[in-house]
Amino acid sequence: MNNIPKSTFFILIFFIGFLGLNPLSAQETWNLQDCIAHVLAHHPQVQQTAVNKNSATWELRQAKANLLPSVNANVNHSYSLGSTINPNNNVREALNVQYDQFSLNAGIDLFNWQNYLNIGLQKRYQSSWVYQLEAIKNQLTLVVVQQFYVYQNAKAWREVLQTQLAGIDEQITRTEKEVAIGTRPKSDIYDIKANMGNIQEQYIEAAKNEAFAKFNLLQTLNIPRDTITFVIENDTQELLPPAPTEVAKIVKNQPEIKRIEKNIEIANQKIKLNQAQALPQLVGQYQWSTFYSKVLDTDNQIAFQDQIDLNKNQYIGLGLSIPIFNKLQVKTQTALAENEKTIQELTLEKTKQELWTSVQKIVEAYDKAIEKYDFIQANFQNQKLSFERSQEKFNEGLIDAYTFFIIRNNWLNANYNLIQSKNEVLMQQDLLMVFGVD
After folding, report:
1. Helix, strand or coil, per DSSP, at residue 371
2. Is the overall model pTM greater than 0.85, yes or no?
């Protein structure tokens, strides 16, 4: 802590409070795969889409259930008081009569194309939600990958600046001793301190950017408090970028494309479903019924069971319904479904182009990142040897403090450039893997 300026320390404390971080709380260590697994399991958008997918499954079951008959049992208990029909002789008299009616009704659609077409429609809705869920997972994964590496780069830059500040304090202390014994001019101390303020400002800005980058990552992961340390555990690995001809195939297999294609099928099915409203419908009906009646205040009654047996009745019927005119609803709804199909087809072409552009940009960025990383990695050892030689010259008094300060910072920046370049390769590689490149 002695190597960090007080102003910087207080700003770091502010951002700790901003993120709700308890310095004494237990920290978990997560890599990128842990982040992806968490967001796919706990993000509200994923959970909401999963609920919609489950609802679509129940809608399909309901559509299939419409093919089954409906059966109802009815019981009615009533009284007729005053002038009424005598159930024993069918003559109207001044009587009080009790009635008990029992019936069993059943009905079934024997011919109704709308039921069958609706089943096909609900199947397509169910598939659409499956692809929608996968598309949302891919979108969230892309965001997590990018934010994860943005944070890693911000963290690496802050650590480089922190090392620079620590080195300046050490260099000032050593130079002051050399000035005291007369081996270095006092102006070397002024040169070093003159550059210290600039690095302190950069460090404060870097710490702020790191805090914001981590906050954004935690927010995407839907984690309210900072109790996680994010680390990179995997290394670069061989990944063959897809050829331009393969990009089109990759795009075709994306869940977002399959979702829109399924929506086009849904629009087609809606057209058929609306047109089916003009077709005749055949309905089968069945009813079993009986009743019991009792004239009150008299003992001359037919037994309950005898009346139930005598009054039994069965009804079997077929009903044919032929639509003739329905206020142009079929034509209107069919036209709307055709418009929906056209919109989905245009959306499909637009989405294909956008995805093709996105994948192609990642492929190009990946190629350039590998090329840049290979160059920086090959030149890294030369920069290291150059820095070590400059350090020997500074210790021998052959170069001044300001020159060595510049050389040292360039060396630290070279370390950061190597880390950033490697992170860029990893990020573009992980983005390609989200699109199914392996």
Report:
1. helix
2. no
Q: Would you give per-residue pLDDT tens digits along the chain (438 residues)?
A: 444 444 444 444 444 454 444 443 467 899 999 999 999 999 999 999 999 999 999 999 999 999 899 999 999 999 988 888 887 778 888 888 889 999 999 999 988 888 999 999 999 999 999 999 999 999 999 999 999 999 999 999 999 888 888 777 777 777 787 778 877 777 777 777 777 777 888 899 999 999 999 999 999 998 888 888 999 876 555 556 666 668 888 899 999 999 999 999 999 999 999 888 888 999 999 999 999 988 887 777 788 888 888 889 999 999 888 888 877 888 888 899 999 999 999 999 999 999 999 999 998 998 899 889 888 887 877 778 888 888 888 777 777 666 777 787 788 888 888 899 999 999 998 998 898 877
Angstrom CA distances, 60 to 51, 145, 259, stand at 14, 36, 18
